Description:
2 copies of one chain form a homodimer. The first copy, chain A, is α/β, with parallel strands linked by helices and 433 residues long. Chain A is built from 15 helices and 15 strands. In chain A, the strands form 4 sheets. In chain A, strands 5-4-3-6-10 form a 5-stranded mixed sheet. In chain A, strands 13-12-11-14-15 form a 5-stranded mixed sheet, with helices on both faces. In chain A, strand 11 (222-227) and strand 12 form a beta hairpin. Chain A folds into 3 domains: 14-83, Orthogonal Bundle (Arc Repressor Mutant, subunit A), CATH 1.10.10.10; 88-206 and 387-411, ATPase, nucleotide binding domain (Nucleotidyltransferase, domain 5); 218-385, 2-Layer Sandwich (Nucleotidyltransferase, domain 5). Chain A is globular. The longest helix of chain A is centred in the last third of the chain and has 25 residues, at 315-339. At the A-B interface, helix 1, helix 2, strand 12 and helix 11 of A face helix 1, helix 2, strand 12 and helix 11 of B.
Amino acid sequence: MANDVGSTQPRDRRSIRRTNLGVVLRILRDSGPRSRAQIATDTGLPKPTITSLVAELVSLGLVSEGPVQREGAVGRPGTLVHLDGHHICGIGVEISTTYVHVLALTLTGEAAYEHRSAIAATRAGADAVLDHTARSVQDCVTALQRDGRGPIGLTLAVPGVINRLLGTVQYAPGLGWRDVPVVGELRARLRSAPFRLAVENDAKAGAIAEYAQVQNTDMRDMICITGERGIGAGIISDGRLLRGRVGFAGEVGHMPLGSKHRNCVCGRSGCWETMVGLDAVLRLAADGGDDLHDLSNGLETRLADLHRRAEAGDARIRKALDRVADDLGLGIALLADVLNPGVVVLGGYFTHIGDLMIDRVRHTVRDRVMAPDAGGCEVRLSALGFAAAARGGAYLALDAVYQDPSAHSEISPVSLCPPPLHHGPGCAVPGNW
Amino acid sequence: MANDVGSTQPRDRRSIRRTNLGVVLRILRDSGPRSRAQIATDTGLPKPTITSLVAELVSLGLVSEGPVQREGAVGRPGTLVHLDGHHICGIGVEISTTYVHVLALTLTGEAAYEHRSAIAATRAGADAVLDHTARSVQDCVTALQRDGRGPIGLTLAVPGVINRLLGTVQYAPGLGWRDVPVVGELRARLRSAPFRLAVENDAKAGAIAEYAQVQNTDMRDMICITGERGIGAGIISDGRLLRGRVGFAGEVGHMPLGSKHRNCVCGRSGCWETMVGLDAVLRLAADGGDDLHDLSNGLETRLADLHRRAEAGDARIRKALDRVADDLGLGIALLADVLNPGVVVLGGYFTHIGDLMIDRVRHTVRDRVMAPDAGGCEVRLSALGFAAAARGGAYLALDAVYQDPSAHSEISPVSLCPPPLHHGPGCAVPGNW
């Protein structure tokens, strides 16, 4: 039965200890530095157990003990346990149709490395994209190691239908990929990479990053829409990533909302992404010969150009943005009827030109959602832009440590570094997906 | 943080005991009769604690101890603790546009009372419908008491947007209701009803009943679509009822999938329920003067007539069913893209004529869902028909006992009855919504 707390399974002592290590580490992540006595109270575990667990986490290089200065605190600073792990990194890699984005985050959520490189992925084909990706990852690992950091896991974020267990991309129409074993292929190209590799849908990874932004608020129902050539959604429902039966939830780009005469890359017609995807905006905004369609310019450059021309009063571009905003609002209203989110976050290309569309989107949503006051649904632009999916991938890679802190030492031992002198409470790495 | 097991709140001893009473009761519900020693193992609680908890549950009349014959068991029957509570009932009441359905279930999931009465609810208005409902509930309570049973709670299931906290129907376009305080109004009409009253959306209540049908399977992602004049959905995601930010999730009837020229009762146009609701079928199937539109015939009679005529080869009716099946498949495919359910259950009027539509619906779903093999999504007809919402309401009413077994004695003390001699394992009352 759902949520049944009674159905406990017997587990061995080592397994319970691994679980408890994770509990302590997650408390430090979510609630900030604290004394061992406080951790004992938080967990309900005996103090000697906490002392032993903290000692193991210290030996793993994941936490440190020491004086911590807290803002506003009076008197002698206490000896607190706090997350360390600035030498441990999770790597997120987004493969989009137009770029490969690599981002490494430390256990405490700081960016340790970031690089984006352009690639015409659809034309290049899977092999070339994976070669390119492997080189980008190798550069990242080299840079991290030079700084005394070690990666403990990497998650690829790909715009398509993923089989997480097999590590494959089953179907990514935007990339033109079918049944590509990306995890195996990347591992084969990264011979000296003794860390976990995994793959996730890009919109789901992006949603994890966006949800981290509202951590410690009461926002537990959220839809994050990625706008690129394709449109996808990561859905957070009651604080959990919605995956569905076999992990395909969130394929909103193919909702049949449009004209039957507009063909989609998926082979069907009338899909929502033919109305609000990047290609639709560019097609409506300018004819083929226009600079907006010149792929030799970077995507952000073209979007900045489009934005500038819209602000300067280009009637066709303004009309295009209005049209896309209306269709975007229509689909968001539909999703709000189905899911009743508290917020819909628009990411990807919307972060670059969405300020010119958002009022109209909000108007349509208010107008079209069946529940009074749109069921409390706000629409806003992402602050993460194109970096969301890679960031979410890095969080996912780090999450393995929070779930089982002792496991990472079996894969990639790390040397200890001195703890930082100042350490703020609360960390931005979400978990339990 | 989601699922964080570390963030325990301090609670007083009485509160912990109430929680533990619920844990024991839910184990008996979900896993069947068992010895006190087994319950101690299941819960991890000490045996003396279990003895004391079981004694309290016995004194509350919720469980009994005694010999239980188990099929296939050899030797002397053991002394087991098992759910009793056949004298305790939860009542579910569905108010639809065409009928009021009252159903009482015992704690062990047996139907103790059931009655459905026709009413033209929209025309009658809220006051008359609530008068009618109160009389139906009073009849039910009288019958239960005559049988030595007592109701411990009642949940209304209404086709509209609900505020569960306030006990109001905020907006039910099919009924023509806005801000009707149904719980307060019903309580005022039931002067001698010392049990809990609550209200839930009809599709959500129906989904809870449907989910109980697949209990103890690995099906955790399900969409239950209710077909009446309006179309609603109850969504189960990863084993939990999806409510959304303020409880409005599942308003799928107003997804903008249709022609802008077809007006909906909600005041908008093109809503899915104008394409696949009961009115659409009847409108497409026959002209106004036809018997199918004669409200003096019961709905089931009219649907049986429609079914018979379709089977006899009525071309217009067959064409109507094909058209509705295609539009139904389109919307289901959309929901499958968004939610990736393992099964979509069609309830309400679909259970009466859906056998003539289901092949076509399945074809459209296979064809239109973006994920390979429709993401594993099956479409099937409900076995519960129009009874699903009332049944789900009864489950919800009973769930309060499973969450806090000691609370119901404070409201409605019950006399003890001798335990039944034979008691099968596993019970059909789901919980934790």
